[in-house]
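Researcher: Next sequence.
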Amino acid sequence: MTAAPTDVFGYAGRLTDAESAKLTALRELLERSARPHLATWWEDAHCPAHLRQEIAALHLEDDPAILGADGEPRPLYVGFRHLELARFDMSIGTLYGGQVGMFRTLVRRGGSPEQVERWDPRIRSFALTGCFALTEPDHGSDVAGGLETTATREGDTWRIHGHKRWIGNAALSEVIVVVARDTADDRVKAFLVPREAEGVTVRDVTGKIALRMVRNGDIELRDVRVPERDRLQRIDSFADLAAILADLRFVVAWNAAGLQIGAYEAALAYAMRRRQFGRPIAGFQLVQEKL
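Model: Next structure:
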């Protein structure tokens, strides 16, 4: 699916016809529905939330034609899907990937079989939208040991209190997976918290350049009540959470490759159309060396 100069090892040739067709449909949708508005959206820090439903309508996750025996798409296809979104725009990639990657994986890996059966089909179809709230104002890379958000069990209910920040898609999500430290045993737990629950306040983080179109949230949780049935039952430590996150780390490399391809293709296209001294600047050796 990448341009010939960037797919030097021909990995796109390992995709099936059905997988290639899905990625072609994704590229065509982005070019048609987003390309004409992309610069304005970036300038205005506008989040094109409507694109999620348009992309979801392509059934990139659940079309039987791209599913394996386990009912999931192949990792190679998943990687190329992330690459394609990042190649176009990483904010739009996060708008979509935060749902089907981070949020869905947390529920599928961290939830009980009953929770997965109840929630996963709705997450996959975007009927239920969500995000992942781990980082805090004072804790990013040290959050494993520095987590300050707490959860206290009171019968069949948990009382959550704390502050999360930089949470992508927060204002667009119906539920927020909140990571908190259990005050009884000091272990890390994860809860599905409705964004509209009493005690939850979500404010947009403004003044950004990176991922400018993503609505990153600053979230305050003041004695928010969550039933035990909405706690992800298979997350009982930060090690459990880290193991789930490790399953998503391969996506980081695909995103990085997609960003590089997008930058290269944009630079090449500009060099081919920009003319100086009567010819495209791509014809000059110094420009060719940079490319």
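Model: The beta strands are 130-133, 150-154, 157-168, 175-182, 188-194, 200-204, 216-227, 275-276, 279-280. The radius of gyration is 21 Å.
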